[in-house]
Design a protein that fits this description.
Elements (H helix, E strand, L loop, with lengths): L7 E6 L4 H13 L4 E4 L9 H9 L6 E4 L2 E2 L5 H14 L4 E6 L4 H5 L8 H19 L4 E4 L4 E5 L13 E5 L2 H10 L2 E4 L18 H17 L5 E5 L2 E4 L3 H12 L4 H4 L5 E4 L1 H15 L3 E5 L3 H13 L1
Parallel strand pairs: 1-2, 1-13, 2-3, 3-5, 4-5, 5-8, 8-9, 9-10, 10-13, 11-12
Antiparallel strand pairs: 6-7
Length: about 300
């Protein structure tokens, strides 16, 4: 895809105390990370919009968003109100990240059985449409298979931004096709079928599978006449002078036969800082990835990579 410009790096984290959360938010803001993201897993992560509002109070530049809110457990009016409030409190830095939801325990916790993949994606599409229309100030009457509103209007507060950026994240073909049509940022996880524990996933990171997935994404974007950013969720970061040994260990953990191929997977950063930066440039050229999200426990290594990206 041959994108140009700086590669953006964001951080996904969760709040565990007021002091540590404020410290992390200030660090992410000061070091030039693009977005501070919060996951949305009730019972195992902090409530995302509460945490992001607290981060807004101690930051000035970094964007603040969900990576990702579970569309299966949100209604459009409540979600739009949360996002608009965050946008006001952050003076126009909110990002709405949405996904279809894949963890059965989260559905069971609210007394519901998790729907099949098709129904979850259908609901995601309906939540995206209704919520984004509400954020524009439109009065929304919506009658879908999963979402219904009757004369809903978000009057107060109104978002500070004319358009709140939308990120849709996932790994399935239908989710990514929806993101290509509707989102400003396509969040690619590289994760396949959810395993029986509801948390871990199968992966296929072979070169052929990666090329096919990103080719599908390019084609879906082209059909829609759009060119959204592509943001990869990094599953492991390791700065090391022994990348081959690290790749062998990780290949076993991920159930991958070809350890050497793992070094060229965009969801894994392994090697020296210089080698990682070179691979990110190659991934942008090959697959159009211009954004990455790293998790909180990889912040130190990601800081070194981000610093080198700025110098490149």
């Amino acid at each position: 895809m041959g994108r140009t410009g700086a590669i953006a790096v964001s951080v996904q984290a969760t709040a565990t105390s007021a002091a540590s959360w404020a410290e992390l938010a200030r660090r992410v803001d000061g070091e030039g990370f693009a977005t501070l993201y919060c996951a949305d897993h009730p019972g195992s992560t902090a409530a995302p919009f509460v945490a992001l509002a607290a981060a807004a109070a101690v930051t000035r530049r970094v964007r603040l968003g969900t990576c990702v809110a579970n569309a299966g457990l949100w209604e459009p009016m409540a979600l739009a109100s949360e996002v608009a409030t965050l946008d006001v409190l952050s003076e126009g830095r909110a990002v709405l990240g949405l996904g279809a939801g894949h963890t059965p325990a989260e559905w069971a916790a609210v007394g519901r059985s998790i729907p099949g993949p098709g129904a979850r994606v259908d609901r995601l599409a309906e939540v995206v449409e209704a919520t984004t229309r509400l954020l524009t100030g439109e009065e929304v009457t919506f009658e879908g298979a999963h979402v219904r509103t009757d004369g809903a209007r978000l009057e107060v507060p109104r978002p500070a931004q004319p358009h709140v950026p939308l990120m849709i994240g996932g790994g399935g073909r239908r989710v990514l096709a929806l993101a290509a049509r509707a989102a400003d940022i396509v969040g690619v996880t590289g994760l396949g079928r959810t395993r029986d524990d509801g948390h871990r996933h199968d992966v296929d990171w072979s070169p052929a599978a990666l090329d096919a997935s990103f080719s599908d994404l390019r084609e879906a974007s082209s059909r829609a006449g759009r060119d959204p950013s592509v943001e990869a969720l990094v599953q492991h970061v390791e700065v090391t002078d022994a990348p081959v040994a690290a790749a062998r260990r990780l290949a076993s953990a991920f159930g991958i036969d070809d350890a050497s191929a793992l070094l060229d997977v965009p969801y894994v950063w392994v090697g020296t800082v210089e080698a990682i930066v070179e691979r990110l440039a190659a991934h942008r050229e090959r697959w159009g990835i211009d954004r990455y999200v790293v998790r909180q426990d990889s912040l130190d290594a990601a800081s070194a990579v981000l610093s080198r990206l700025r110098d490149a």
